[in-house]
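S.,

Sequence below, as promised.
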Amino acid sequence: MKQLDNVPTHLSRTFTGTYRLTGRVVEFDNAKTPFLKLRLSDCAGDQIAMLNLSTTTVPERIGHLDFVTASGVKCLSGQFILDEFRRASRDEVTSMDTLQSLPRVYSPMPEVFDKLVATVQSLRSDCLRVFLTRVLERKDRLEAFLNAPASANYHHAYPGGLLKHSLEVANHSVAMLRLNEPTMPRLMQEACFVGGLLHDIGKTYTYDSKGKPNAAWKLCSHDVFTLEACAYGLTYLDAHEPDIAMTLRHLWTCASPGARYGQPAAMTLARYIRDADGQSAMADNQQRAFRLQTNKGFGRLGQNLFWQPQLSAAASH
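The prediction came back faster than expected:
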């Protein structure tokens, strides 16, 4: 490692920001000066920064995925040399944009991740944005949401499958809503998106941070964890948009596939989410059934049988 101290300021530019701490290791430069190499992450990507341990005291009890605020300079070499590194204040954390703190580095499907962040940040409802922050930016859940499959052996059964399936259901639900009920208020459209996005959020309890099934996967059905996963956010909505909070509870506990509560659907949003869920799952399974088969006709995936008709050359273009 090259020597990093005494960097001329005219060869650098300033740097400051609030991030999640996702990595750190001690390194030494040519003069044997110890530096703490840090990876600072957010939804846009990573910053690699160096902290001189001989001149700067590292705050105690800052752990993996904690919020930190760092500032310093960026050298021509591309490395950041920090002159400040500390735990972020509450105001600094709350001033971040919705989902800004999700580490893009942890997503195995970065293109889908980017679509999620862009769509959520376009929501007009401040209450729903705060709600999603309280549900998805939890340190103990966010890695599972980004890494878990949507199922172990069925649809979207690959790392990042839960994220991809969740976003498909959310977007398809809203598309059906706008087609059938174009005058539906914007807030209800956004509630439909959120309901679809989080319809499988209970699976973050049944997979670990690396997307591997855990004990809860064998012991409990994922749907029993949905309200638990959203409890902190629902408490906020109860105080600011109580009917939207009740709407989301209804969507997740009535007619959606897998729901064990048996409550009949009392609004069309529940049907849209149910249908979008089934469509997303079947489309992924059908693609997998034919991924190794070039001929048309029947394909099988587990117990599911799929059929693709043989089309004329003109019709297939």
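The chain has two domains: 9-93, 98-293.

Coffee later?
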